[in-house]
């Protein structure tokens, strides 16, 4: 499974990076490949490429603030989560994704 995520929060500081780390750890615990782009106060870091998008099975986007360049994910399966949920409930988010994919 190849997972991409973009994290961003209204202030663009702590929660952006805490969510990125939590999602990355939770995805790796499942044995999934993961790349997380952050859109924080210092701009876009670890930017997702169109090649990354082409290979991705699922895209996770935080929904607390608009994500820049979201149009690059057109046609992909997108899961939207609150940035606080990404920080506090990343393992449960991965479990829900896994269960959904098992049903598909």
Automatic annotation (TrEMBL):
UniProt xrefs under Gene3D superfamilies: 3.40.50.2300
Enzyme category, top tier: transferase
Keyword Glycoprotein attached: no
Enzyme Commission number(s) from the entry: 2.7.1.202
A GO CC term assigned to this protein in UniProt: plasma membrane
InterPro entries with a match to the protein in the record: Bacterial_PTS_Sugar_Transport, PTS_EIIB-like_sf, PTS_EIIB_2, PTS_EIIB_2/3, PTS_IIB_fruc
Membrane spanning stretches: none
A Pfam family annotated for this UniProt entry: PTS_IIB
BP GO annotations: phosphoenolpyruvate-dependent sugar phosphotransferase system
GO molecular function: kinase activity; protein-N(PI)-phosphohistidine-fructose phosphotransferase system transporter activity; protein-phosphocysteine-sugar phosphotransferase activity
Recorded catalytic activity of this chain's protein: D-fructose(out) + N(pros)-phospho-L-histidyl-[protein] = D-fructose 1-phosphate(in) + L-histidyl-[protein]
Residue ranges constituting the PTS EIIB type-2 domain according to the UniProt record: 1-99
Keywords, ordered alphabetically: Kinase, Phosphoprotein, Phosphotransferase system, Sugar transport, Transferase, Transport
Keyword 4Fe-4S recorded: no
Official protein name in the record: protein-N(pi)-phosphohistidine--D-fructose phosphotransferase
Organism: Photobacterium carnosum
């Amino acid at each position: 499974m190849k997972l991409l995520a973009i994290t961003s929060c209204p202030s663009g500081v702590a929660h952006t990076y805490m969510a990125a780390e939590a999602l990355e750890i939770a995805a790796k615990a499942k044995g999934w490949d993961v790349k997380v782009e952050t859109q924080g106060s210092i701009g876009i870091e670890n930017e997702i490429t169109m090649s990354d998008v082409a290979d991705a099975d699922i895209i996770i986007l935080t929904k607390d603030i608009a994500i820049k360049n979201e149009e690059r994910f057109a046609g992909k399966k997108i899961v939207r989560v609150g940035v606080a949920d990404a920080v506090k409930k990343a393992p449960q988010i991965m479990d829900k994704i896994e269960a959904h994919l098992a049903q598909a």
